[in-house]
Amino acid sequence: MCKPVFLIFVIYGVFTAMTAGVERAFIAEIAPPQLKGTMLGLHSTLAGIALLPARVIAGLLWDGIGAYEPFVYGSLMSLFSAVILATKLRQTPKAIS
Hints:
Blueprint: H1 4-30, H2 36-64, H3 69-90
Helix pairs in contact: 1-2, 2-3
């Protein structure tokens, strides 16, 4: 019988597979032709830098509290980010007079 944590990893893997390619395709589409490789490399670099503290926090939560907490923490941070994004997108920029 599969443990629930294993199923969470499977769901996370499916999510990553569905989003990673879309991110890279979007960057390749909006980048100037002469800078596509640079922009893809910059995206990977920034994503790696941002993921380092996230992975450290997840490891500390896993070791300190339990196996489910990193997933709960990640879900809450995603929800928080979505709320901020939705709030900021609703604000229209003021016209410069």
